[in-house]
Amino acid sequence: TPGAVEVELGQFRLIPGPKGETGERGPRGYGIASAVLNRDYTLTLRFENGDTCTTPSIRGEQGRGLQILGHADSPEELYALAPDPAPGCAYSVGTRFPHDIYVFVETSHGPDWVDIGPVQGPDEGVTSFNGQTGDVLFPVDPAPAEGSRNPVTGGGVWEGLRRKPNPNLLDNWYFVNPVNQRRLAECTAEGYTIDRWSCNCYEDYPLTIRENGVLLRGNRAFYQRIEPYKIEETETYTYSLLFADGSLKSVSFKFPDTRVREAHPLDGSGWVVAADGKGDGRYYQTAFYRSNGNTDAVVSAAKLELGDRQTLAHREGDRWVLNEIPDYGTELAKCQRYYQIFATEDRRPAEAEDFRPVMRVKPARGTIEINGRTYYTADANL
After folding, report:
1. Are the CB atoms for 222 and 207 separated by under 8 Å?
2. DSSP code string of 333-372
3. CA-to-CA distance for 300 and 207, rounded, in angstroms?
């Protein structure tokens, strides 16, 4: 047969016959005119010819509720209270209502506690008349948002459930990569150090800027003055320190309403945060230092935030890791409201409004020597 193809089948040879003619086209099917999601989560389809059919329920099995097994006043107490937790167990944590809920789950770095924030029902509303429950036509569920990723750990969905960090009221707080317009490596006299920070160091106890933070020796204090608009004396604030060894210390307090200094111990570790009230002065001030002994320590980051919980870092195994790393350009712009350096004198403006960024007040003009070269400064520090 012309066009036939021989196919060998063992001892036989099969020669296909000619192709048959194409049959007539079948009748056109009916499309779906509407779809209704019923209260039992079945779907009723109505076709263009008026026929209907109902699908099986599309609702999944009921999930398990969240069972809170206990309460701890702090994350540190939680780790001691539940040293070997089972996956999925939950505890409430905090000293102020509503408490945060910590759940032990699998994360990108292994099983760990994750703070999913407070769980609280809505306030009681006004009772309304009950209407008739109806079916939903073409319900569309929003696509789940992709979990935010932790900028330090790169964690996925569970990392995204962590509570968003509060704003840091301190400037230039990331000491691993600080704004350092003076290009200092070590400070051996009391006064200004890296931008916005001062220290009562001296030659025997200098402050050293290292690649993992600032090295404080002995009981030297590191402090920053804060403009009054940032502080409300009736509110509670939390101060936190992250050390280069991965430890974290924090304390909550209120600023005094007079020009006095109040010291607040950090977890009985010997570290202290001192808060100065404004009174009739121009600024508030916070400082941290070690009150016992002459032990040196490297501090990588500091945070002052509104509220009685720290959001500077989260725990990964036996270490604390920053929740965020600040943008260097943003921190530089904050610092330049107080201090700017120019390579040539004629480029330095005279009025605060002419600087970029605009300076806090009209600055005092001066000079500074950096690596044997003279630079021209504008100083509007508190």
Report:
1. yes
2. HHHTTTEEEESSGGGS-SSGGGSSSPPSSPPEEEEEEETT
3. 13
pLDDT at 145 over 50: no
Distance of CA 22 to the CA centre of its chain: 67
Phi then psi for residue 79, to 5 deg, are -60, -35
Q: Is the overall model pTM greater than 0.85, yes or no?
A: no
Q: Which long-range contacts (CB under 8 A, 24 or more apart) does 335-339 make?
A: 335/171, 335/172, 335/179, 335/181, 335/195, 335/196, 337/380, 338/195, 338/196, 338/379, 338/380, 338/381, 338/382, 339/181, 339/195, 339/363, 339/377, 339/378, 339/379, 339/380, 339/381
- Which of 225, 226, 269, 276 lies closest to 254, judged by CA? 276
Q: How many CB atoms lie within 10 A of CB 291?
A: 14
Q: In what order do the strands lie in the sheet with 373-379?
A: 339-342, 373-379, 364-370
State the pLDDT confidence band at 155, using cuts at 50, 70 and 90: very low
- Largest alpha-carbon pair distance within the chain? 111
SS3 string, 198-249, reads EECCECCECEEEECCEEEECCCCCEEEEECHHHCCCCCCEEEEEEECCCCEE
- Rounded percentage of the chain residues whose pLDDT exceeds 90: 51
And the tokens for 302?
Answer: 């500091």
Segment 142-168 shows an average pLDDT of 48
Check residue 140 and give its pLDDT. Answer: 31
Tell me which residue has tokens 């704004």: 179
Contact 314, 321 (CB under 8 A): yes
